[in-house]
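# nightly structure sweep
# worker-07 picked up a monomer target from the shared queue
# config: single-sequence mode, recycle default, output format = structure tokens
# input follows
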Amino acid sequence: MKMLGKWHLAGIVALIALVLLLQVTPALADENHHPRVLPPKSHPFGKTYGEWNAMWWQWFFSVPASKNPGLATNGKVDCNVGQSGHVWFLAGHFLGSGSFTRNCRVPEGKALFIPLLNSWADNVCNSPPLTVEQLRASAASAVIPPANLHASIDGNPLTNLESYRAISPVFSYTLPPSPDNLIDAAFGVSLPGPCWPSLTVTPAVADGFYIMLTPLTAGSHTINFGGSGPGITLDVTYNLTVGS
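# output follows
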């Protein structure tokens, strides 16, 4: 009877474990819908998606306008410009809608952080300056509500992309001197200048939807991504060559 009791108890424990696994598995399946995509809750490479969002904008603004892939339309772009470390960034298109197809090369062993739809806000030319809460509302208004968020890796579509929203912490960014920076190129605002006394802008915040891809294998890959927010619709394709 004691042996039967132990087996009975073990059976109950196993049943409870199975029920818990069945409850957790759908959530994990939603987040890990593709083995190459790291879910936001995993803190990929030691940072939250929100922190990577801030780093994406710091990279983006640091690249001179003349070399910035975010101003490119179609054709070959330099995906190496401004990149460093284990995680590299791909760009959508700055302040514009449309469909774009780009070709570039990335080394092996680089994870890719990719914006499906994103926005930022700061106080350049704002008088009086907005509070951080007002800046956050401004950034969110460009991407919320999202529509038609999409991404695919070599033709394999990803799902549940609304759960990949990344809200940044407050950050600063530093621009190259005018006229070869994004603020001057896009808005005709010279920095430093009357609107802002420095090439470093703070505070800034960002919002949007991103995916983090683990390093791709050597060879050719196609990454497609995009979506729609209030006033903007993007569809971007990168034909990537991975390798030296």
